[in-house]
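Limitations
The structure tokens in this dataset are predictions for the assembled complex, not deposited experimental models. Users should treat interface geometry with appropriate caution, especially where small molecules or nucleic acid strands are included. An illustrative entry is reproduced here so readers can see what is and is not provided.
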Amino acid sequence: MNPTDPTFGTSIDFYVILASILFTIGAFGVLIRRNMIVLLMCIELMLNAVNLLLVAFSTYYGKGDAQIFVFFIIVVAAAEATIGLSILIMAYRNQKSTDAGLFTNLNG
Amino acid sequence: MDALIVIFITGLIGLFTGLLKKPTLNLIITLCGLAVAFALQLNYGFYKSPFANYQVLEFNVPQLYFSLLAILFTAVIVVGGFGYFKRDASHTGDYYGLLLFSLCGAICLIGFTDLFMFFLGLEILSIPIYVMVGIKKQDVLSAEASIKYFFTGAFATAILLFGIALLYGATGSFNLNEIRTVIQSGEYHTSYLLIGMLFMLGAFLFKVGAVPFHFWGPDVYQGAPEIVTAFMATVVKLAALVAFYTLFNITFQELGYFWIGALYFAIALSLFLGYLGALKQTKFKRLLAYSSISNTGYALFALLSTSHSSLASLLIFLVGYGFSTIALLTISMAISNEDDEIAAFKGIGYKHPFIGFIMLISLLSLAGIPPLTGFFGKFSLLMNAYNNHLWLVILALISSAIGAFLYLRLIVLSLTKDESDKSIALNLWQYLVLSICAIGILGGGFILAI
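Predicted assembly:
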């Protein structure tokens, strides 16, 4: 497709692919990084990929409910980040590090 | 809906009365709130609720019983943990408040008719538990369990949300009835729907703690305080299983050809990996966590059959499993087993025959020995699946034998004579909890008669 075409990028598939790429970057980040603050950021990236996808679908169907869902996700993501950062601080006080790989007391 | 509001307000009051540092007052308020919620939920549909037009939550007969069971489990856990709360008086209010908020989420998950409510319920259920797992701030293990649960839980939530977004893209609706109509009419975007469903299946297997997403379970169960472990093993598992059933067995019923294969695989692995992992454990809570993985495998049999009775068998199974788990964890608290070693249970039947008896029946019920509730639950779950899934039922019976070996070993340990003179004392509340659990374990099978 020609990028100068005014209908370029209006197909829903473009948004699905973009959201999937963002989501995959986030998911891989969670799987391979060890710094817990970066892990939180990666989870945030995954949630924002979902937001993008929902907004795109909302426009596609011409309905507003998915956009309201996005507000819910933003609120819940904020709550999760709050809890996550406070848990992280607590863990840092015990471990003196934000490296997720050092938590090996529980295993078996 | 009214019960939900009552529980939420009770939680708020509990959070503030916690400042007075009077655990007994807190306990009474919490129990009163739970009793009112129980009564409201019991009379659901018999009186005119001011929120009758609120369509997002709907309780039919099986869901109603599950919500009652969730409230009952929470009440029993709150009472059983009272001795623990009293020792930690500065955090009593936090415990009560967070447990009740989490229960709100569980009730949302049991009665949802809309993916909005489903997502909110799941988060309201999970977020207080992230906090409660790590509530022993100075304890290294508790902090580690909290970190592990939080990151895996948040990851699963993100995956679930991506599934919900794709599902919306495929069907154009968040309402379960509308989604089901679209699926029946066949006018959906197939690849979005199937991929979205697969994502949701993964997230659900994570939340109920089934293989291959079970790895967090043992670590989190071991690190968390006993109360929180009991809550996670009963109420959270119950709510997640009911939501799993509502979403997959009712809404996605027509697409069963696609997800049942994946579920088959998860159930077969859960049945064995749970019990085999439990065999080599020396920590009690870890052993319970592994055995709960296998029990989840049994509970997931309810999803394989579309008949109406499968939800009833799930209910009986959860009554047996839940009361046994609560009883065992209460006993573990009562013998002040700080190191969480299984060896601490040695000779407990001699030192305190009442505890010995409760331990005996709860382990036998988990092993599935008739006439205890665990047997009826397992039996009716497997009977429902027998016609269409014979091989899986055979696997379940083999794994049941491994489980029986595991539990009988614990019974033998608790009945072996022990020379050490460590005395055990139960407080009044623990007697009450263990008696209620005994009634549930001995009499739960009679639910079948109703």
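Some entries come with short summary sentences. For this one: The mean pLDDT of chain B is 87.
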